[in-house]
Each structure stands twice: as structure tokens, then as C-alpha cells.
Amino acid sequence: MTASGTGPRVIDLFSGAGGLSEGFRQAGYNVRLGLDFDAEACRTHAFNHPDATILNTDVHEVSGKDLLAESGFGEVDVMIGGPSCQGFSTQGRRGSWASEDDPRNMLYRQYARLVGDLRPEWFVMENVPGLLWFNKGEFGRRIFDQFESLGYQIQHKIVLAADFGVPQLRRRLMIVGNRVGKVFQWPEQTHMGAVRRDAIALWEKRRLEKFPHLERHLTLWDAISDLPAISAGGGVEERRYTKAPLTAYQAALRGSSDLLFDHQATPLPQVHLDLIKHVAEGQTWREIPQELLPERFAKIRRTDGTNLFARPDRNRPSYTIITQFGNVTTGAYTHPNQDRAFTAREGARIQSFPDDFRFIGNLTSKYRQIGNAVPPLLARRMAEALTVSMSGESAELVLDLDFRNAVAREQAAAERDDLLPAAM
Ligand SMILES: C[S@@+](CC[C@H](N)C(=O)[O-])C[C@H]1O[C@@H](n2cnc3c(N)ncnc32)[C@H](O)[C@@H]1O
Question: Do 122 and 78 touch, CB atoms closer than 8 A?
Fold first, then answer.
């Protein structure tokens, strides 16, 4: 781990374990301050970013002045951060439970308040794509308006982590603002592949014919195949590796670490252990005999494309890792050939955290911190693109005149799940 210290001065709000901080640090930025009200996430951030101060407090309690004083900066070059927005997760985009009044969905206002106080030249805000199209795009428009009224030119994009070398089909919204008229040059994708299972062959043909300079999406197995077998509830916090890395990705994340940390799996109740035995690799809850399924499954149509109880295919990227990835009932979190959920370290590998990045807290907290994070590799690609953009010329951006149409197009593309790589 190299020390930060000299690069552009960064404050990370809602810093969690520090996935975003880690990517910016790797790209040479001087991340000097994090803030989060989760005490264990703060301890993780402090452990892995010893040069940074971490404020374990509620964002509502601090002013820009406080942040400057704590960071030791005279001014801030870049504000980064991902305010939680649980109500707008993509799963909930049609759900009536997503409410604009939910205080958890108002945290972006705190982010904007502190951008207004500190007036960094740039900011990068990460969030779930659903925020953009909630209430037919009104919510996203309001967020953009707020930043524009502070004098920032806004750009946004929904990025797929797998396109940047992360072995995960995680889509996230990135909003970048600049207040001196500079244009953000988005990072070029480095990898290519299908999101939908039925389009894999089509995308691979397209890649080989038209984009041979792009690598194929990394797979779950590229990320975790070197890790020792353990059982549900098993594993230890610290042990030695049992074999050499099997892929370049594994070797890169191991770096110089000779110890394997957090390869621990959450215990599963017997009833879930019995149920996942019915699900083979690449299958989901639909293979479980109806009479054995918990009652709530009776309401789910068998044709619904949910990943509940899914056991992912090792030859594809992982599905999105969320805070609950220790709970096999809620997503594709069962190991491909072992009857258990992913371990915390497997989750960290899927998120592209280096193996020497330590998570502090109990196992549930570690799962939460890992699932919440921006994949450091994606954050790093954004940070590198920002470095290029910083030295670019100022130019007036031609923004979408009809924001709602733009949002509708983005939603339609995400819902098609990139069936055809036509946009490229
Ligand atoms: C999506 S996570 C951020 C993850 C982080 N960017 C990373 O890459 O690891 C959002 C974080 O916001 C924190 N949070 C939520 N409400 C907060 C508040 N009112 N004040 C401070 N932190 C808050 C949560 O504890 C959580 O760690």
C-alpha cells in the first residue's frame, strides 16, 4: 500500500469502508478525510487509510468549515461520496415503497450542502441508477438542478463495473460536477461481455470481430477459484493461502499479501442448507420443490427473473453483491460448488478490494461494508479519468435539453439489459 499525500486533495463523504477512497488513493489522490456514522466502517477506513482522518458522525452535524479543519486542507480539490439511497435500489424502481420523503433518500442534499460550503473544483457522486428515473426522472432532475444552482456543470453516466475489469455485473450511476467549465472525460471501458445470459454468444462474437482490444468480462471463477473450501459458518479471520494464484486477477489482488484474511462464511440455518442442495450451479429458487419453499415464495411468479436462492455460474461475472450477501435467500450469493454463502473475502474479491485491505467489525458488519462499497477498481478508473480531465480545456457542455427523454432512454437500455451491443 503506498501512502497518499501529494495528489489532488480529496474528502470522501459517506465513506463506508472506503472503496471509493481506495480507488482514488490508488490513482494517486490525497484522500485526507472520510465521514460516516457507522462506527465499524470508520474503523475499517482508519485502518486502511492511516494518512486520513475519519469523522464518525452524522453528516447533518457537520459544516464545510468543520471538514476543512479536520482534513487540514486549506481547500478541497475533489469531493467524492456515495450517499445511501436505499429506497431507489434498482429492484425497487417500480415499487411504491420508494419514497422521496424517506430521509435516507435525502442525503444527497447534505452532500450538495457541503459541496456548496467547500466549493471543490470537482465532485464525483456515486449512486444506484434507480435514483435517476424515480418519479419519471423528476427526482434526478431535482438533484441536477440543485448542483447546477451551485454553479456546477453536471455530467452523468450509468456504468457497468464488469466493463472496467471488476468481475461483477454491478451498475452504478456516476454524477460528476465541475465548476470551472471543464469536461469530464469518461474512462474507456477495458472489458466487454453480456449482461443477459441469452446474449453471451452474441456479445462474444461482437467482441472478437469488432473490439479485439477489449478483454472479455472477468468471471466469478477468475476472482475466487484459488480460495480454500470451507463450510457454512466456517473459516477463520486469518490464515495462509493453500495454493498459488490461478489467474492474473487473483495475483494482482494478492499483491504482496501472504495471509488470507476474512475467508469466513456466515452460518446458514439448516432449512436454507437443505434448500440450496436443490439448486445446482447456474440455477435459482425455481428448482426447489414448491412445497419446500418458504411461504413468501408462493406470491412470486415462476417466470419472474429474480435471483433468489441462486447459485451463480462460475463462468460468468458475479451478480451484484449487496449488504446482505451472507443471506442466500436474497440473491445469487451461494458458492458455485460449496453449500454456503460467499465468504467476506470472496465478496471483497468480487468487489476488487486488494487482499491486504482489512475489514474491521463482526462478520455481519464486514458483509455490509463490502456490499456497500464502490468497487475500488471502478473508482480508480474514474479517478484516473479525472486526472486526465483536470488538465483538459474548459468547454461549454451541451446538456440534454430534454432530461426526461434522456432518462427514459437510459431506463429502457438498462431494462433491455444490453441485449444487443448496438450502442457501441
Ligand atoms: C453506499 S455506502 C458508501 C460506500 C462507500 N462510498 C464505499 O465506497 O465504501 C453509504 C454510507 O453512508 C453512511 N450513512 C448513511 N447515512 C448517514 C448519515 N446520516 N451520516 C453519515 N453517514 C451516513 C452509511 O453508514 C454507509 O456507510
Answer: yes
Ligand 1 atom closest to the Cα of residue 21 is 8
Among this protein's residues, is 85 annotated catalytic? Answer: yes
Going by alpha carbons, the residue nearest to atom 9 of ligand 1 is 373
Domain boundaries in the chain? Answer: 9-191+375-416, 220-372
DSSP per residue, 334-390: B-SSSSSBPPHHHHHHHTT--TT----S-HHHHHHHHHHSPPHHHHHHHHHHHHHHH
Which residue in the list 13, 55, 85, 223 is annotated as catalytic? Answer: 85
Class of domain 220-372: alpha beta
Regarding beta strands 215-216 and 191-192, do their DSSP bridges make them parallel or antiparallel, or are they unpaired? Answer: parallel
In this prediction, the residues of the chain whose per-residue pLDDT falls under 50 are 1-4, 90-97, 401, 418-424
Index of the ligand 1 atom closest to the CA of residue 82: 6
Ligand 1 centre distance from Cα of residue 296 (Å): 30
Q: What is the DSSP letter of 315?
A: T
* Beta strand residue intervals within 82-194, DSSP E: 122-127, 153-160, 171-178, 191-192
CATH for the stretch 9-191+375-416: 3.40.50.150
Ligand 1 atom closest to Cα of 376? Answer: 8
Q: What is the pLDDT of residue 392?
A: 83
Distance 108 CA to ligand 1 centre (A): 11
